[in-house]
Amino acid sequence: MTGAAGVPAELCAVVLAAGEGTRLRPLTEQVPKALCPVGNVPLLDRALARTAGLGLTGPERVAVNACYLGDQVVAHVGDRAHLSVEVGDPLGTAGGVANLRDWIDGRPVLVGNADAYLADPAAAPGRDVAALLDGWNGYTVRLLGRPAANPTAPGTFDGHCFTGFSLLPWRLVRDLPVVVSDLVHAVWRPAEAAGALEVVPYPGTFFDTGTPPDYLAANLHAAAGGTLVDPTATVTGRCVEAVIGAGAQVDGDVLRGVVWPGATVRDGERLVDAVRFGDGRTVPAAAYR
């Protein structure tokens, strides 16, 4: 049985938001990666908009896991999704799904990484990911991917790099142990070895936002070559290819930069290829390349 736009009526979605985001530090020292803004929209909200585009909304159809700075994730999600709070260290992508086994309860599950930035101008949010469902037989594992620069490099699947979303049949979720583990080794590679993994090409833009350069690149892409300024920000300086967050005060110049909500760029300052956040701290993206 299928619902709107060919989405199986029993399909559920899990958005993974429990990770520590260590590669994105110091941005993630006080804010979980899932809540870091891209184009002035928290990454988690972008993922939830994508599931909503498939008709998957509410705590019966969508779950979000949390661990690192989990209280912030819980407060941000509220009653928009079922919440799975992992105690101690994050369980990883496979462990996080396994921890939701009772909630998934026999359904196929669309799994998305909260830190995945996807943009396909040819499709509304969610409709690009819907390609994972087209013609699916309910048995194979499906990954959304884009062609890799090196098709045989480690971490590739059928010559593609993973772009943040996968589709799992219940038969492979049912027996996952609730231990620290990842989907690559627990599900995807075994399915690949059994000839039961399919890669669905993704035609849009993708960044995993896991490092400062990729995080900056995703923000600049969201700005579409221009400047995004939250209506509550105050800008008297010059901004070119920039994203300025809520309540920010920008009296200096920002070139290819991001200014987080509430942050300040003072008169005479010049922020270039960097992220300004918190109490005046700056992360220069070039230093992490």
Q: Helix and strand succession?
A: EEEHEHEHHEEEEHHEEHEEEEEEEEE
Strand content: 25-35%
Tell me the number of structural domains. 2
CATH fold type of the largest domain: Spore Coat Polysaccharide Biosynthesis Protein SpsA, Chain A
Instruction: Report the span from N to C terminus.
Output: 47 Å
Largest sheet geometry: 7 strands, mixed
Helix content: 10-25%
Structural class: alpha/beta
CATH superfamily of the largest domain: Spore Coat Polysaccharide Biosynthesis Protein SpsA, Chain A
Radius of gyration: 19 Å
How are strands sequenced across the largest beta sheet? 5-4-1-6-9-8-10
CATH top level class name of the largest domain: Alpha Beta
Low-confidence stretches: 1-5
What does this structure look like?
The chain is an alpha/beta fold. It has two domains: 4-207, Alpha-Beta Complex (Spore Coat Polysaccharide Biosynthesis Protein SpsA, Chain A); 212-288, no CATH class. The protein is 19% helix and 29% strand. The chain has seven helices and 20 strands. The chain has helices at residues 43-52, 70-77, 92-98, 101-104, 170-173, 183-193, 212-222; strands spanning 12-16, 37-38, 41-42, 62-66, 82-85, 109-113, 117-119, 141-147, 160-168, 197-201, 205-207, 227-229, 234-235, 239-244, 249-250, 253-259, 264-265, 270-272, 274-277, 281-284. The strands form five sheets. It has a seven-stranded mixed beta sheet with strand order 5-4-1-6-9-8-10, sandwiched between helices. Strands 12, 14, 16, 18, 19 and 20 form a six-stranded mixed beta sheet that branches. The longest helix is centred in the middle third of the chain and has 11 residues, at 183-193. The chain is globular. The N and C termini lie far apart (47 Å).
